[in-house]
Amino acid sequence: MSRTLAVVGAGTKAVAVAAKAAELRDMGVEAPDVVAVEKTGVAANWQADGGWTDGQHRLGTSPEKDVGFPYRSNLVPRRNAELDERMTRHSWQQYLISTGQFAEWVDRGRPAPTHRRWSQYLRWVAGNIDMSVVTGEVQSISVDTGADGHRWQLHTADQTVEADGLMITGPGQPERSILPGNPRVLSIAQFWHRAAQHELISAERVAVIGGGETAASMLNELFRHRVSTITVISPQVTLFTRGEGYFENALFSDPTGWTSLTMAERRDALMRTDRGVFSARVQDALLADDRIRHLRGRVAHAVARDGRIRLTLSTIKGGESLETVHGFDLVIDGSGADALWFVPLLAQDALDVLELGLGGPLTGESLQEAIGDDLALTDVSPKLFLPGLAGLTQGPGFPNLSCLGLLSDRILGADLSGAPHSSTSRRGHEHQPIR
């Protein structure tokens, strides 16, 4: 019986999984039908219309870490090399060769592509495999308990998509901000819309909330605007640089041994390499711009007063909570992606299924700790894949673009028959290939 895997969003992860599933079927190997439900288009978040970029900034990850990377498939015994060879047909280099850009890219020193160019690559892959995309915005997610077992139901305004497994991707809603509707507070989407329209910001004191790569890309853009000072607000003690040496990068490409680390060691590695850190390229730019300042704290309150935005920052000093107030002419809320953005979409029956499997209330912590080696929640049926939350238990590369080929292996090797797997029985075992 053919199974269906639905994906919320037609982004990089959806394209990677769909491409490998297509190659498996061409090899005569059973693989689920992958259906992406997308409100805009394939790779929309990498273009200006998606609200997360103006499309002109550079990809932070090497483009060679494409939909097949690291090309070490473990799905089909004795045929994995063939599967890897097939996936090279969808590689970044093959895209450049097919579009007549390879020689120029090499001669220019293999530069990081713009976000827009990366989206064009992903659309090229999706076109090659005739990727199935249902146009529509998911408004709610429920569980159907029919005679054929539990299945996910994704409801859009016009139709319902049913699936045996569900993967949720994407960073959430870029339209949110701490003071919606106030012209002196810009959401991520509003900021990038102005940048895409080449509308320069003119202000004395500007604040950027957030210490991760979303905020970093905004700072990179703000360098060319007419602003006197730029204050970065983040809870970290300073603006840390992301580790980009071999040993740090290897953690992302190959998580072998990750599960042998203690939870404390994993959290420490994530904080040093992935969360709340800027890339070395952006840090170099910050060093050359004396307009940049850093304020430590979390925004506890925001209010518009006397033509300015006053932010109340909360910090912990000496074990006590301290609040300070700071005024700015413009605030850009770049606090970043919300890994739990999908929770409001879950109908009560879906929430019941998740809480039953988790053995308690649904929280960010409980979701992260319950993700198994197939990147789905253990003890939950039907399967719910949450690669964006899999960093803690499975490795730091899964939430981003660092090991898309391994991500697709894990997901396509999962059992979508509807039988939940015990987290205790799975712990300590390697991912099983398709038989």
Strand content: 15-25%
Please outline the major beta sheet: 5 strands, parallel
Portion in helices = 25-40%
- What is the typical, i.e. mean, pLDDT? 88
Radius of gyration: 22 Å
User: Would you identify the regions where 5 or more consecutive residues have pLDDT less than 50?
Assistant: 420-435
The helix tally amounts to 15
Structural class estimated from helices and strands: alpha/beta
CATH class of the largest domain: Alpha Beta
**Envelope shape:** globular
**What is the level-2 CATH architecture name of the largest domain?**
3-Layer(bba) Sandwich
**Can you list the strand order of the major beta sheet?**
3-2-1-7-18
